[in-house]
Design goal:
The chain is an alpha/beta fold and 205 residues long. The chain has helices at 14-25, 42-49, 70-77, 113-120, 134-147, 163-173, 189-203; strands spanning 2-7, 28-30, 33-35, 57-58, 62-64, 95-102, 124-129, 152-158, 177-181.
Amino acid sequence: MKYIIAGIGTEIGKTFISSILTESLQADYWKPIQSGALDFTDSDTVRSLISNSTTVFHPEAYRLNEPMSPHAAAAIDGVEIELSKFELPNTGNHLIVELAGGLMVPLNDRETNLDLIKKLNIPLILISKNYLGSINHTLLSVEILKMNDIEVKGLIFNGEQNKYSEDFILNYTKLECLGRVNFEENIDKSVVMKYAESFREILLT
């Protein structure tokens, strides 16, 4: 199985959840664009949180210096992100692909993450975080995915459970809830392993 991990915005918990799903499937991991934090990238974070020895970490297509939107970080670095440079890693293993930012984050002056999702053409898992306004952000994200015929495996909710928000989102979108995680202050391998065990079966169906 191969999945794109996308969020309804920034700071949603994509890397934490990507760690869980990578560990759950003992999958390979790929972050196509790393913007900023080059001394300890999202790949490094995932590597530090998983316990299996199967996962292969594939190199980023773009490593940008500034922690900004990819199009801005690329401009500052004097490069232009080209959609043609993105190809899924050649692997016989499961694969987790973590996007940089939300669905409509610009890659250059013409294209966004949505265009990258279309090009990669694998199912997507959408991460929603419970906060004031998250219903609107989640529904807008789901609508644009549906409008573009993107296959959505389901939703994962991050944060303390909010039954009212989650029930409305699930009833309105008709998407499956794949699970819930609660971002913890002290995330380590044992926390990731705890969650990973609950996701494996549902990800493989």
